[in-house]
Structures are given as C-alpha cells and as structure tokens.
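Incident log, structure service

09:12 report received: a user says their structure output differs between two submissions of the same chain.
09:20 pulled the input from the user's history:
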Amino acid sequence: MSTRVVIADDSDIAAALLEAILEEDAAIRVVGRARTGAELLSLPAVAIADVVLVDLLMPELDGLSVIRTLAARAGVIVVSSLPRGSAVVREALARGAGATVEKRELSGAPARARLRAEVLRAARRPAAARGGRVILVAGSTGAIPALEALARGLGPLDVPVLIVQHLPDRRERDLSRALRGLGARARPARAGDALSPGFLLAPSGFHMAIDARERIQLTGDLPVSGHRPSAEVLFASAVPLARRVAALVLSGLGDDGVRALPGLSDGGGLCFAQEPSECSAPGMPRAALRSSPRVRPIRVVDFVALARRWVLGEG
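09:34 re-ran on a clean worker, output below:
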C-alpha cells in the first residue's frame, strides 16, 4: 500500500516540485495539496494522509499554527525556507513535527532522497509517537553509562524518551549535549513540549510530568522522595497512558520513582529495573523490584533490544 502524502505550500511551483520528488518513489503517492493552514485543515485528503509536508510560511493560517492538530493524526514534516536551527523550526519540532528539510537543499539528489526516506519513516510513526508509545527513565548515581547506552541504541527511533536524572544544578544541558553526540535528539524539556521523538531531560529544580493533553508540564513544587526533579512525579503522571508506557529504573541511591511503579504496571505498562549486579548503586533498582512482581530486572543492552521491538510494533 502506498504512503499517502498531503503537501501544504502557498507556492504552486514548490508544491509541484515536492510532488515530483516524492513520486520518484513508487511507494509514495501525493493525495492532496493546500495553500494555507486553514485550507489544509479542511482538506478531505488529510483524513486519509499518512504524512503531511508543511511549509511554515503560509498566508492566513501558517504551518506552525496547525502542526499540533496534524501531528495527532499523521506524520508531519516541515519543508521550509527557514534554517533548520531557527527558533520557528525548533518550535515546530516541539509541537509535534517529526523532521525538517530546508527547501534550498532540495536541488541536490541526496537531500531529495532524504526527503523521501523521511516521508516513509514518518508514515511508520503511529505506533511509536503520535498518541503512541513513550519510554520513561529514572536514574541517579551511576546511571550515566546506561543513559549513554540508551542514546546509542534508541536515539534513531521515533519515540519520546522522558528522563529524570538526578544531577547537580544545570548539568542537564551538558548531559543533553553528550547524548546528542551519541546519536540521540536530546535536550532539556520545556513546558508545553509535545511528546515528540527524542530524549527530553527534566531540567534542574523542576518536576517534569505529562499533563492531560499529553504535553510536558514543569512545576517547582516541593521535592518528592528527596528530589526535584523526581521520577515519582513523572511516573505517576503517566499512569493514564500506562498501556503505552515502558518505564526503566536505572542505577541510583534511594527509591525515587518506586511508589508510582505499581500503578503503571497494574495499568498495563512495561516496568523494568536495571539488573542490580550491573549497577554501581543498586538501591533504586532493588527498591523498584520490591515494589511489584510485575517489575522485571533487565540488563540495559537487553532493554534496548526489547524497546526497539516494542516501539516498532514487533512485541
């Protein structure tokens, strides 16, 4: 079955070029076009589209304004004249776009091939990201090597990985930079972020939670289990999504996150603790294993393999 694509661009020339590029692959079929965000939202073809290409600079209602609505039903790729690192493009990714391509790059064959690959990749995202699966990670003393292994193994996947790692103040930026160097899209979380693919780290001094709209909420409430951020807060907030959640407790002292694990596991979530024998500080994993018989010990390398199958809908 072909991957169905809708193109939103106020330039007929640009839209025609995009259609020609995409349909060089017989597995891709363009099923509709729109010139504005308002026209896009009312387009019948959007209801059957697997992927939508969105230009951010359109009249009446721009692409940025419609991404949140679109990302709930289809993969979204930004194709824009704006630089990939611009604030507007970063905001598009935060609102749920899965990838971005600069128009000026499309004169070259490699970029055209990458666009087609991104479209096919985005079409496979429903089980992984849009209203789909989420990985939660709690870590403290000794957890950094495990996070690095997760970045190498899970970084290329289209799945949100929400991390509460106990760190000295403001060191989450350094950790994010290190994880990016290992192949993961990683950064400190911001209030209002969508559950889009990549590693989002709880910032220093703030609890991170998932709100009722399935967006990131940051609060400065009192420490929980002696920590702010606390994994307890994140895990508890994910109970309504439990059937779509895999949670992992890594090396650390204490028992942060443990009280929320029974709620996650009882709700159908997959709950794991890093095998204590491979932890430099096994307190958190041991407490997690005591919290519920449904929490299973696992080596990090085995969690990566399991999570990859789970995210791709193979287990």
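09:41 both user submissions now match this output. Likely a transient worker issue. Closing.
09:42 reviewer note: The longest strand covers residues 28-34. Confidence is low (pLDDT under 50) at residues 126-131.
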